[in-house]
Each structure stands twice: as structure tokens, then as C-alpha cells.
Amino acid sequence: MEQKEINTQILSEWLDTGKKVNVLDIRPTHEREEWHIPGSIHIDAYEELKKNYPDALKSVDFDKSIPVVTVCSGGKTSLVAAQLLHHSGYESYNLQGGMKAWSLSWNTASLAFDYFEIIQFRRTGKGCLSYMIVSGQEAMVVDPSLPVEVYQEVIDQRKLTLKYVADTHIHADHLSRSKELAETFGLKPSIPENDKLTFPFHSISDGTTFKFGDIQIKAIHTPGHTLESTSYLIEDKALLTGDTLFTNGVGRPDLKANEAEARHKASLLYHSLRKLLELDKSILVLPGHTSQPVAFDRKPIQASIEEVLMNVSMLHQEEDAFIQTLLNRIPTTPANYLTIVEKNLSGDFTGINLTDLEAGANRCAIS
Predict the structure, then answer these.
(1) Helix and strand numbers, DSSP H then E, in the chain
(2) Taking the CB of residue 361, how many other CB atoms lie within 10 A of it?
(3) pTM metric for this prediction
(4) β 238-242/230-234 pair status
């Protein structure tokens, strides 16, 4: 009998609906530590499975009434694991494409305010967060990182009019879908002022406002992670910070920068953060990424400015100490980031394998 397989969409639906399933991650420990599926169980059996050892999974002792989905990086070695479990009496499935395919899996959470709603779209494996702000029957999307169809389906279902599509900055760890999404709805993307993009866009500067429905959103230039980085303040209630400020860290200043440039950008970031931290402490910070796998719990990834101040000790440092702390904690450079930046500058994604290019953990935060 041919081994059963499921795709990432089915596994996402199972997890989202609370179906009982054991997800077995058989990758090497160092890969697991980089990124994983929320709630998955880890057994480092990768090398034994590659060698076809019949006892590679002898330690597995799950309830056999619950299906098991096996996972590896690309979906090949986990197929061997699924076969072994099947022969041991389990209802087992192999995850097609493995963690590379899981990179595009997503779920949502919502926040309701008096005159608007924010839908947080979360790439559960990759940690990318994008947002749809809805007021009345009009909407704005910020930092889209999922296929256009994901946002289009919500817009069509709710009969919304998409007014704006914006980015917080030129992204280096995922492909921006802003250009494609905007063009699908007959718009130009709105992107922070820069001289790098090679396609038409509406330029956003400090103080630019977006008005739709019953609300307005104000752009606040917050350079540091990148020179054009911009945050978006929604009605003094919520702040979309991109990769400038996270719930438990701050953005890295070193990408596409030498040592002197990284130090300069760290200084810019310090002053940008001071500007944001002067806002009302009850304002919710909604970042562009999270460094942890996003659970299927429908709970928004958020923290008030007051909570962020409690979570991130370096925010209390003076400028010189802050800069040195930041530069001392630079994480590993994201895979393929130069290619991703190049593609985002051109807006042309033809001839590339999106799954391979974007695979891997998010590394934009320093905590």
C-alpha cells in the first residue's frame, strides 16, 4: 500500500480546528531549534532514517487512535518515518514538502476597536506577520507576505474595497506581495520613500496619512533596521512597527551594511525607538515578525508599549550602551537575503522558486 501524504493546507486545517494529531519532527536538533511547527514532537532520528535503520523510531509510543504526521526539511526522509510508523500500526501521513512547504502556512487573529478591526495574518512557520485594517467597508493591507489570493478571499467574502497596500520597509527575509496585491486591485503600492525600487509606487514620508472608512493612519519614519523603515499609527490605538520594534526585541541594523554603517543605523534606530516610546504607553505594538512558531490559537501577537518596555531591557539604556549591546547581539544573517532584497526591489518574481528562497527561520529581531 502506498504511503499516505497530506499537504500543508490540510495539516493547517487540522491544527486550526483542533483535530487531534501528533506531528512528529524527525529533523536534526539544530534544524528544529531554528524553526518548527507549533505543538510538534521532536525525535532526532534523521541520520538513522536516512540509513534505513528499522529501529530508528523505536522510542515512539503514541496513542494509536490519533493520526501521526511526520515532518522533515523537504518531505523525503519523513516519508521513511511515516512508512515505519505505518508498519507499526499507526495511521501515519507524510507532510509533502516538509518544512520548506510549511513556510507558507498561515493562520489569523483579530483585534476589534470602536471604529476599525485589525486582522493579523501569521505565517506560522516563517513568523512573518501582515495586517488588514478594516473600517466600514474599506480596507488597507500592510506588509503582505502571503499569496495574493489569501487577502483577496477575505476582501471578496466581506465585500470590502481595498484602498491601500503598504510596506513598512524593503524586506530582506521574505518576498513582498505589495506590488502584486495592489495591481490586482488597480492600485499602486505605498512604500516608504527611497530611490531603490524600479517600479512605480506612492512614496510615503514622515507624517503621511491614510484616510479610509472612519479612521486615519499616520506614517512615522523610524529608520534603523533600514533607512526607509516606517511605522504606522492607527488612531492612537495600535502601532504597526514592521521590523523596528518587536514585542520582545528590536530590529537588527546590520543587513547590507558594513561595520560603520551598522553602527550608524543602530544610532538611527535608538532615536526612532525613543520617538515611538514617547507615544501613549497603552498603544498596542503589532510587529512585522515573531521569532517563535505561531500557534493556531487565534490570539494576536501584540504587547502594549508599556509591556514592551518591561520585556526589552536594552530600551532603558543610553545611546552608546544601546548601540554596543545591539552590535554584540547580531544574529546569523538570514539565508538568501541579498537575493530576496534584489527581487523586492524589482518586484519581479518570475523564474524563482519562492519556497526554496524563503525557507528558514526569521532572524530580524535582536532581544
Answers:
(1) 12, 20
(2) 22
(3) 0.94
(4) antiparallel
The length of the chain in residues reads 367
What's the half-sphere exposure (Cβ side, CA atoms, 13 Å) at 354? 16
Residue with cell 521532536: 42
Contact 220, 205 (CB under 8 A): no
Do 164 and 210 form a contact (C-beta atoms < 8 A)?
yes
The rounded distance, in Å, linking the Cα atoms of 236 and 284 is 9
Read off the DSSP letter of residue 49: H
**pLDDT tens digit sequence for 137-188:** 999 999 999 999 999 999 999 999 999 999 999 999 899 999 999 999 999 9
Question: What is residue 9's three-state secondary structure?
Answer: helix
- Phi, psi of 187, deg, nearest 5: -115, 170
Same fold, 5-101 and 103-366: no
DSSP string for 335-356: TTHHHHHHHHHHT--TTS-HHH
Q: What are the boundaries of each domain within the chain?
A: 5-101, 103-366
CATH class of residue range 5-101: alpha beta
Q: Write out the CATH class of domain 103-366.
A: alpha beta
Please name the amino acid found at residue 321: A
Name the grid cell of 243.
521590523
Reference 232, options 271, 290, 202, 192; nearest CA is: 192
Distance (Å, rounded) from C-alpha 156 to C-alpha 63? Answer: 42
Cell digits of residue 179: 506590488
Q: Among the residues of the chain, which ranges form H helices?
A: 8-17, 29-34, 46-50, 77-87, 98-102, 148-157, 178-184, 259-277, 305-311, 319-328, 337-346, 354-358
Question: How far is CA 109 from its chain centroid?
Answer: 13
With cell 504606522, the residue in question is: 232
For 241, which DSSP code? E
| Distance, CA of 60 to CA of 89 (rounded, Å) | 12
Express each pLDDT in 123-139 by its tens digit.
Answer: 998 899 999 999 999 99
CA distance 188 to 186: 7
Q: Between β-strands 22-25 and 41-42, what pairing exists: parallel, antiparallel or unpaired?
A: parallel
